[in-house]
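Incident log, support desk, overnight shift.

02:14 A customer reports that sequence design results differ from what the structure should imply. Their input is reproduced verbatim below. On-call engineer (initials T.W.) acknowledged and began investigating.
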């Protein structure tokens, strides 16, 4: 009898212990380019590792979550947001006996296509690019085409599907994808409240009282309430959802945040400047395509110059976009004078 290797052992344990609604690693629909199976890692663990070691993942640490150039070290970035989503999603998946490895891979990759300056950068590219721009679609493009010097990461179907469908209006093919979609909203609503209070945009007393009564008055309590409700409502079922009382207050809290924070002139005081930078950089690169190199130039002929420029800008960190803008548009003597 042939001894099991670590991957085979883990796949057998999954089949014996996970929910009948979980996506088993051995049942993946596979990759666009087949590869030899790893003796130690399942396909979803390999996907997690490929994302974790990618350049686009590392760049998330210098991309805005909500507050542009916040004065302080404790505000969330796109990277810390991603890690919080992963933690919440893994907690839910473990409790529901779903595939944690698939869940983690989707969570770590879901925002790889986000622009510099958060959703303000995304809004500008959406205006400028024929056919529009959505960060979830761009995240899929990153892992399929742009990463690995233009070769893509060759991820499994289930991870790519979860990345594409993580937004609220998405329809993931797996329950693990649904967990990430919900965890994304749980994470950003709650940590954005925390950041808004740190910035002085919100006070705890500003939160809707019914939301506080149902969900809790503290960051950890709200997240705990939501996770416990999801697990209670979803365990042993082919669906991931919240109860109506909890979801209605969760949705009310989300609407409150859009009204008081996401569209708040204090939180967004620098947004017009950021949008202007993105717009001017976009138009400049359209006239200087020779500046696009590597993965961003590889698909220039295939996908068009507008898409290539959008790829290039979307891949920038906040800091790099600012430095490029200064290099291109600000006279060097002025920069030297400032320093």
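02:41 Re-run completed on a clean worker. Output:
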């Amino acid at each position: 009898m042939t001894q099991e290797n670590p991957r085979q052992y883990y796949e057998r344990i999954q089949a014996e212990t996970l929910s009948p609604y979980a996506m088993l690693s051995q049942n993946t629909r596979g990759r666009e380019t087949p590869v030899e199976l790893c003796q130690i890692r399942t396909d979803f663990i390999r996907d997690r590792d490929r994302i974790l070691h990618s350049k686009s993942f590392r760049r998330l640490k210098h991309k805005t979550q909500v507050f542009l150039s916040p004065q302080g070290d404790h505000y969330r970035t796109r990277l810390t947001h991603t890690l919080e989503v992963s933690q919440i999603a893994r907690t839910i998946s473990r409790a529901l006996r779903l595939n944690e490895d698939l869940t983690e891979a989707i969570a770590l990759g879901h925002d790889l296509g986000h622009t510099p300056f958060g959703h303000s950068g995304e809004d500008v590219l959406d205006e400028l690019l024929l056919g529009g721009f959505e960060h979830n679609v761009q995240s899929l493009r990153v892992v399929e085409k742009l990463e690995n010097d233009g070769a893509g990461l060759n991820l499994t179907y289930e991870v790519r599907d979860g990345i594409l469908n993580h937004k609220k209006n998405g329809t993931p093919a797996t329950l693990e994808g649904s967990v990430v979609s919900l965890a994304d909203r749980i994470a950003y609503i709650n940590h954005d409240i925390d950041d808004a209070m740190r910035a002085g945009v919100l006070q705890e007393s500003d939160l809707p009282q019914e939301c506080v009564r149902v969900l809790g008055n503290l960051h950890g309590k709200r997240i705990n309430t939501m996770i416990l409700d999801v697990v209670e409502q979803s365990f042993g079922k082919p669906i991931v959802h919240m109860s109506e009382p909890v979801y209605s207050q969760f949705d009310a809290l989300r609407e409150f945040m859009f009204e008081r924070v996401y569209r708040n002139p204090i939180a967004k005081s620098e947004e017009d400047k950021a949008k202007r930078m993105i717009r001017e950089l976009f138009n400049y690169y359209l006239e200087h395509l020779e500046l696009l190199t590597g993965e961003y130039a590889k698909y220039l002929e295939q996908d068009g110059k507008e898409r290539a420029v959008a790829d290039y800008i979307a891949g920038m960190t906040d800091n790099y976009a600012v430095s490029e803008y200064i290099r291109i548009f600000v006279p060097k003597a002025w920069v030297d004078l400032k320093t």
